[in-house]
Design brief:
mainly alpha, homodimer, 6 helices, about 150 residues
Chain lengths: ~150, ~150
C-alpha cells in the first residue's frame, strides 16, 4: 500500500512537472537530472555499504538513507527532456529518446524497487534490506547499461 | 506542528549522517552539497516564478515544488564537512568553518522557512505562498551573501 501511494505520488509529481519548458536550457535539464542521480547514488551507496558489510549496520541510518533515495527517485527523469541529449557534459545515450517508453518503464521499475527498499529499511531487518537493495541495484544497472555511456 | 515534525525529522537525519567519514573525498562532499542546492534552486525557482507572476499560478505544482524544497533542504549541509573548503569547484567561503555555529543557524532558519512555505503551498492560497516564499528567499540570500563567493 505504501508502495502504491508512493507510485501515485510519483505520477502526481510527474504530471505537475510536465514540460520541457520547465528548463530554460538543455544544460539546466542535464544539471538537474545529474544532481538528482548524484544524491541518489550517495544515499543508495550508504545502504549498499551496510548491505555488503563494508560499513556497520545502523538501522536508523539505513531507513533515513532509503527515505532519501525513494523521495529523490521521483525527480531526475523530468530532466530527460527532448533536446537535452546534448548541451552539457552528459553521458545520456540517444536511445533514451528513441526508445523512450522502454526508458520510462525502466525508471518506473527503479522507483518501485527503491520504494520497496524504503519499506524494507523501515523494518530494521538487515536481511530484508539486503534483498531489497539487491533488487533495486539491478534496476539501476539495467538502465545504466542501456542508457548511459561508460 | 507540521513544521516542528519536519524540524525533528531534519535533526534525526542530521544525527544519522554525522561524520565527514560519510564522504571519501572532499570532492564528493562538494558534489553532494552542490547537487542538493541545485535541486532546491530549481524547485524553489519554480515557486518564485509563480509568486512573482512570471509563470501562471498552479496550486498543485506549487505544492509539489514546495514539498521537494522542504525535503531536500535537509540534505546539503551534511556536505559542508571539515576539509571540504577546497577540492572541487566550490564557492564556499572559509567563514563556513570559522563561524560554523552561525552558518548552521542560518541553515536551520532556511529549513524552518521552507517548511513554512511547504505548509503555505498546501493551502493553495497564492498570497500566503508569496509571503512565505519571500521569507524563505531572504534566508537563502542571507547565507549566500555571507558564505558563498560571487
Amino acid at each position: 500500500m505504501k508502495i502504491r501511494l508512493l507510485s501515485l505520488a510519483a505520477i502526481g509529481l510527474a504530471c505537475a512537472l510536465p514540460a520541457a519548458a520547465q528548463f530554460a536550457k538543455p544544460e539546466d535539464a542535464i544539471k538537474y537530472r545529474q544532481s538528482g542521480m548524484s544524491l541518489m547514488a550517495t544515499h543508495f551507496g550508504r545502504i549498499g555499504a551496510m548491505a555488503t558489510g563494508k560499513a556497520p549496520f545502523d538501522a536508523k541510518a539505513a531507513a533515513d538513507n532509503a527515505e532519501v533515495v525513494a523521495f529523490v527517485s521521483r525527480l531526475p527523469f523530468a530532466g530527460f527532456v527532448e533536446g537535452s541529449d546534448k548541451g552539457g557534459n552528459t553521458k545520456a545515450k540517444p536511445a533514451i529518446w528513441t526508445e523512450n517508453d522502454k526508458f520510462k518503464a525502466g525508471a518506473s521499475k527503479m522507483q518501485e524497487e527503491v520504494a520497496k527498499l524504503n519499506t524494507a529499511a523501515k523494518t530494521g531487518n538487515l536481511d530484508q534490506i539486503k534483498a531489497a537493495f539487491g533488487e533495486a541495484a539491478k534496476t539501476c544497472k539495467a538502465c545504466h547499461d542501456d542508457y548511459r555511456e561508460k
